[in-house]
From TrEMBL:
One Pfam family matching this protein: HTH_Crp_2
Signal sequence extent: none
Keywords attached to this entry: DNA-binding, Transcription, Transcription regulation
Domain HTH crp-type as annotated: residue spans: 144-217
Span of domain Cyclic nucleotide-binding: 11-114
Protein name in the entry: Crp/Fnr family transcriptional regulator
Keyword Transcription regulation tagged: yes
Protein's organism: Aquipuribacter nitratireducens
PROSITE patterns, alphabetized: CNMP_BINDING_3 (PS50042), HTH_CRP_2 (PS51063)
Keyword flag Ion transport: no
SMART domains, alphabetized: cNMP, HTH_CRP
């Protein structure tokens, strides 16, 4: 089970079955409780991680204490590789938003894999996708309003964590409203207002650390 999920990560997806199994055997499982911190922004980085279960938030803190979330990652996703590629401090703090298990790979076990062009290409593709996503988020910060950004964030979370139910897509994102606000780069009040407005229009139903999207199409139009 663990291996199947870990093999979705770009690092392992490019390996044949035997090599992937050997690599997983070299990775170290780390159990995380909800709210537990794995590493802190500024720490030296000596390992990368692939998520087996649970969700991880990657956040940065400004000098005045405000926080901004770069991403929420789930099973099969990888993080912590930047400070291995480009030796330097961690660019973000990693905290579990739900209990789960991640698998770590040390720099010494990681770097030799880059000699395999298929692995290197797969990692470059993943970095490229992340850069595209980050550029889009930056453009949205400049060009979109808060409700548009909230709609887009919910659709992104739905695509990765959503589950079809009888009345819509249940997105158990595990985030507080404060964290959702940090993800879209707005105040909690403004994000709450947008969510209440969407709920009032019947586009979604708010639940504890989750939403059920009832009208994906209307939300999609609002996200444009
Ligand atoms: P590292 O700097 O070692 O530790 C923090 C990690 O957050 C970083 O490696 C990346 O893996 C990840 N990260 C940084 N920026 C982003 C981003 N914009 N989107 C997703 N993940 C990111």
């Amino acid at each position: 089970m663990a291996e199947e999920v870990l093999r979705r990560a770009p690092l392992l997806a490019a390996l044949d079955e035997d090599s992937a199994r050997a690599l997983v055997a070299r990775m170290r499982p780390v159990e995380l409780a909800r709210g537990e911190r794995l590493f802190h922004e500024g720490d030296p980085g000596d390992a990368l991680y692939v998520i087996e279960t649970g969700k991880i938030k990657l956040g940065r803190r400004a000098a005045d204490g405000r926080e901004n979330l770069l991403a929420i990652l789930g099973p099969g996703e990888m993080f912590g590789e930047l400070s291995l590629f480009d030796p330097g401090p961690r660019v973000a703090t990693a905290v579990a938003v739900s209990a789960g298990r991640v698998h770590s790979l040390t720099r010494d076990d990681f770097v030799p894999l880059l000699d395999q062009p298929r692995v290197a290409l797969s990692l470059l593709a993943a970095l490229g996708r992340r850069l595209r996503r980050t550029n889009e988020a930056l453009a949205d910060l400049v060009f979109s309003d808060v409700p548009g950004r909230v709609a887009k964030a919910l659709l992104d979370l739905a695509r990765r964590f959503g589950r079809q139910t009888d009345d819509g897509v249940l997105v158990a994102h595990d985030l507080t409203q404060e964290e959702l606000a940090q993800l879209v780069g707005a105040s909690r009040e403004t994000v709450n207002k947008a969510l209440a407005d969407f709920a009032g229009r019947g586009w979604l139903r708010l639940e504890a650390r989750a939403v059920t999207i009832l009208d994906v199409e209307r939300l999609r139009r609002r996200a444009r």
